[in-house]
Amino acid sequence: MKAQKRIALVAHDHRKSDLIDWAYFNRTALAQHELYATGTTGKMLEEKLDHPVTKLLSGPLGGDQQIGALIAEGKIDVLIFFWDPMEAQPHDPDVKALLRLAVTWNIPTACDRATADFIFTSPLIVDEYAIQLEDYSQYIRRKIK
Fold first, then answer.
1. Could you tell me if 44 and 70 are in contact, meaning their C-beta atoms sit under 8 angstroms apart?
2. Spans of the chain below 50 pLDDT
3. By the 8 A CB rule, do 39 and 11 touch?
4. Where are the domains of the chain?
């Protein structure tokens, strides 16, 4: 992982304002990195931060899956996903798949402000980092047969 991270920022509707507030508070740190976001969240972040954001589809329209694919391809280094634990989402399976991919590929993931703060106050956020990945070769061979 390079010093400049590729950071995905995602938020459910009732958590968007929390993510925007957190991002604005951390705007100086975020400006050092490449940002990705789903639909409306990306537009809101770009306007608030005055920093370019690669905008993907809205979450329910496939944006969560696009971010998951980027994680699997090694193109996202950190996931900040403020999800709403109090409201069921129509795309809950996509949300679960996204979180599973983040764990599978061992990328730092924050689902709340406190965890995001801990990630962004770590000196590793601006340093190169050798990520440790599981060896999935046996799993892949088993699935191919």
1. no
2. none
3. no
4. 6-144
In total, the chain counts a number of residues equal to 145
* pLDDT for the residue 60: 82
Asked if 18 is an active-site residue, the reply is no
Of the candidates 120, 65, 126, the residue with the CA atom closest to the CA atom of residue 98 = 65
Task: List alpha helices for 50-127, DSSP H.
Answer: 63-72, 92-104, 113-121
Whole-number pLDDT of residue 145: 62
In the chain, which ranges are E strands? 6-11, 34-38, 53-56, 78-82, 109-110
Instruction: Tell me the C-alpha distance between 136 and 127, whole Å.
Output: 27
For domain 6-144, say whether CATH 3.20.20.70 is its number.
no
Catalytic residue, from 18, 21, 64, 77: name it: 64
pLDDT digit string (tens) for 23-60? 999 999 999 999 999 999 999 999 999 999 999 998 88
Burial class (CB in 10 A: 0-12, 13-18, 19+), 116: buried
Find where tokens 């990945």 sit: 133
